[in-house]
Design brief:
CATH class of the domain at 83-226 and 253-315: Alpha Beta
Largest sheet: 9 strands, antiparallel
Oligomer: single chain
Shape: globular
CATH topology of the domain at 83-226 and 253-315: Beta-lactamase
Strand content: 25-35%
CATH superfamily of the domain at 83-226 and 253-315: DD-peptidase/beta-lactamase superfamily
Distance between the termini: 34 Å
Strand order of the largest sheet: 26-25-24-23-31-30-29-28-27
Length: 563
C-alpha cells in the first residue's frame, strides 16, 4: 500500500486501435505517448494495461509485462486486476441505485443502520460517508495500531467491531474532509443491510450485468481464482528482483473490486450513455460534497474533481499491496485514460495525467490556443538519479521534526535510501545531487542543509512549490534510569489492546499483545516514536507516568492508561 515507483524494461506488446466512431490521435501524438511510456516496457517483469478512450471508442491501447511471473502469462485488456480504491465509485453508484428505488436516503443517520455505534453516529449521515466528512477513524490505521496482520482483520465482523469501538471522532461531522476507508466499507455494509444482498451480488445484478462487465466483481473466490487474474508484486530490498505482494483481503466497499481495462471502458462510457437505474447518472456521480461552512469539496461520489489545461478532470486512483490503478476522465473532450498495473512501484495516476496532457496539448496546438499547462515541464518520473559515495548520506541519517510535530526518520539499507514519515508511510528516496533527494513520480523532495560546523541541522521538505523546515532531533537521555520510568503495561479501550514497554539490553522496546517486540526511539523527555505513531506521556501530581496519548496519521488522541 505504501510504496513508490520504479520503471520497467523491454517492450512486450503495443497495439494501436483505430475506430471509425472516433478520431484517433495523430501519429505524432502516438509517438509522444510511446516515448513517455517507454521506461515501462517489459516482457519479464510485472507491467500494466493502458487504454485511451475518445468519443466513445478505444483509440490507443498498450499492454506490457507479465500478469504472473511464475506462469509468465502476459498482461492484456482481459487481465483481471485488484483496483483498490477505484472501487469506491462503484460502491457510491450502488448507494444511488438504492436511493433511486426509495430504499434509503443520503440524509439517513448512521445509527439507523448500525445502532452499535456510540451516540455520535446520530450526527453522521450516509452523505458524510460518501464525501469523507464523517470524522470516523480509518480501519486500516486502527488495524496497524492494534498490531494486526491482514489475516487478523479479514472479516466484516472484525472491521465493523474495530470501527464501532471508537469513542471519538477525528472531527465533528461535516466540518472537515479526511479521506477514509471506513466510510466506504460502511456504505458497502449498508447495501447489504438494505438490499439483503452482498455488495458483490448487488453490483453484479444492478451495475456489472447491465453494462456487460463480465470480468468484474467485488472479492469472491471465483474472481480470486480466475485464470487471467494478475498477481501483485513489489521490488525486494535489493531493488534487483520482484517478490510477490498479493492479498486475500475480502473486505469490500472501500476496495475489493477486481476488473479489467476492457470492462472499465464500459463503465466509462456509461457516463455518456447511461444504462443504469439512476436518473442523471453522470451529474449525480459528479456532485461534490460541501462542508457546514459552505466550502465546496473536490470529492464527489467516489470520484475527485481536478483540472488539466483548464478542463475539469474527474479522476480516482487505487493502491493496495502490489496493485496500482487510475481512471481519469475529461468530460468536455469525452477523453478518458485508464491504467492498471501489478507493481507497487507503478504510479498509475501520474501516467494517466501525462497521457491526457499530451493528447490535449496536441489539440490545443492544432487550434492555436495558448493555455497554461497545469503540469510541470519535467514530470517527476523523468528525473534522474546520481551515484553518491557511501559516506555522504551518513551525515544526513537521523530524525528531524517538522513544526507540526511530525517526525521524519532518514536511513539507508543496501545502498538504498529511505525516509520513514512516522505514523504515515515509509518511502524510498533517490539522490538528484549530493544534498537533494526526491520521491519518484511525485513532486516531493528533500534538501539537507549544513550549519557553519558542516553538520546537517535542517532538512527542507519540498511539496511542489511549498517548503517546510524540519530540525534535526538531538536524541534524549537513554540511560536505564530514565528509560525505566516508562516500563509497564498500557491499555487502550478503543482498540482493546495492551502495549507493553520493556527494557532489554539497555534499550526500550514495545510489544503489542503477543506480537514481536520492536525498538522505541526516545525523541525527548516524554515523547517517543512508539510502534506506528508518536506517543506523548503524561504524569500524575507526583511526577509518575500515568498514561500516554498516541497519534498516528489520521488517528489522534488514543489514550493508553498505565495498568
Amino acid at each position: 500500500m505504501r510504496s513508490f515507483f520504479n520503471t520497467f524494461y523491454l517492450l512486450f506488446i503495443i497495439c494501436v486501435c483505430h475506430y471509425s466512431a472516433a478520431q484517433s490521435p495523430k501519429s505524432v501524438t502516438i509517438s509522444k505517448i510511446e516515448k513517455k511510456l517507454k521506461p515501462f516496457e517489459t516482457n519479464v517483469d510485472p507491467g500494466l494495461s493502458l487504454l485511451v478512450v475518445k468519443n466513445g471508442a478505444i483509440v490507443y491501447s498498450k499492454n506490457t509485462g507479465l500478469a504472473n511471473l511464475e506462469n509468465r502469462n502476459a498482461i492484456s485488456e482481459q487481465t483481471v486486476f485488484r483496483v483498490a480504491s477505484l472501487s469506491k465509485q462503484f460502491t457510491a453508484a450502488c448507494i444511488l441505485i438504492l436511493e433511486e428505488k426509495g430504499l434509503l436516503s443520503l440524509e439517513d443517520p448512521l445509527d439507523q443502520y448500525f445502532p452499535e455505534f456510540p451516540d455520535y453516529a446520530s450526527k453522521i449521515t450516509l452523505r458524510h460517508l460518501i464525501h469523507h466528512t464523517s470524522g470516523i477513524r480509518d480501519f486500516f490505521k486502527l488495524a496497524d495500531l492494534s498490531g494486526f496482520d491482514e489475516q487478523d482483520f479479514n472479516s466484516e465482523e472484525t472491521v465493523l467491531k474495530m470501527i464501532t469501538r471508537q469513542k471519538k471522532l477525528v472531527f465533528e461531522p461535516g466540518t472537515d474532509m479526511l479521506y477514509n476507508n471506513s466510510g466506504y466499507f460502511l456504505l458497502g455494509m449498508v447495501v447489504k443491510k438494505v438490499s439483503g444482498l452482498s455488495i458483490d451480488h448487488f453490483a453484479k445484478a444492478f451495475v456489472f450485468k447491465p453494462l456487460s462487465m463480465e470480468n468484474t466483481s467485488f472479492f469472491s473466490q471465483e474472481i480470486n481464482d480466475k485464470k487471467d487474474r494478475a498477481l501483485g508484486y513489489k521490488k525486494d530490498r535489493t531493488g534487483d528482483n520482484y517478490e510477490l505482494y498479493d492479498s486475500d483481503l475480502i473486505i469490500s466497499g472501500d476496495g475489493g473490486l477486481f476488473t479489467t481495462t476492457e470492462d472499465l471502458v464500459k463503465w466509462d462510457l456509461n457516463f455518456y450513455n447511461n444504462k443504469l437505474p439512476i436518473k442523471n447518472f453522470a451529474a449525480r456521480m459528479y456532485t461534490r460534497g460541501r462542508l457546514k461552512n459552505g466550502n465546496l469539496l473536490d470529492y464527489s461520489f467516489g470520484l475527485e474533481h481536478s483540472s488539466i489545461m483548464e478542463y475539469d478532470c474527474i479522476e480516482h486512483s487505487g493502491a493496495y499491496v502490489g496493485f496500482r490503478s487510475a481512471l481519469l476522465r475529461i468530460p468536455a473532450k469525452e477523453l478518458s485514460v485508464i491504467c492498471i498495473g501489478n507493481s507497487a512501484e507503478l504510479q498509475a495516476a501520474q501516467i494517466c495525467r501525462k497521457i491526457a496532457d499530451i493528447i490535449l496539448s496536441e489539440a490545443f496546438a492544432d487550434n492555436k490556443i495558448q493555455v497554461k499547462n497545469t503540469l510541470p515541464k519535467t514530470l517527476p518520473f523523468e528525473r534522474t538519479t546520481v551515484k553518491l559515495p557511501s559516506y555522504v548520506f551518513t551525515s544526513y541519517k537521523g530524525k528531524y521534526e517538522l513544526a507540526n510535530g511530525q517526525i521524519l526518520n532518514f536511513y539507508n539499507e543496501n545502498e538504498r535510501y529511505y525516509v520513514d514519515i512516522i505514523g504515515q508511510t515509509n518511502i524510498e528516496v533517490f539522490p538528484s545531487s549530493s544534498f537533494k533527494f526526491f520521491v519518484k513520480e511525485t513532486d516531493i523532495s528533500f534538501s539537507f542543509v549544513l550549519d557553519s560546523s558542516k553538520v546537517t541541522s535542517l532538512v527542507i521538505l519540498h511539496i511542489g512549490d511549498k517548503k517546510l523546515l524540519a530540525k534535526r532531533i538531538v536524541e534524549g537521555d537513554t540511560s536505564s534510569k530514565i528509560l525505566n520510568e516508562y516500563v509497564g503495561a498500557y491499555y487502550n479501550e478503543d482498540l482493546d489492546v495492551t502495549y507493553k514497554l520493556i527494557i532489554e539490553e539497555d534499550g526500550l522496546f514495545i510489544q503489542i499483545d503477543n506480537k514481536p517486540k520492536t525498538a522505541i526511539d526516545l525523541i525527548r523527555k516524554d515523547k517517543m516514536i512508539l510502534g506506528e505513531g508518536l506517543a506523548e506521556f503524561h504524569r500524575d501530581k507526583q511526577g509518575n507516568i500515568s498514561a500516554f496519548y498516541l497519534e498516528a496519521g489520521s488517528v489522534k488522541d488514543l489514550l493508553f492508561v498505565k495498568e
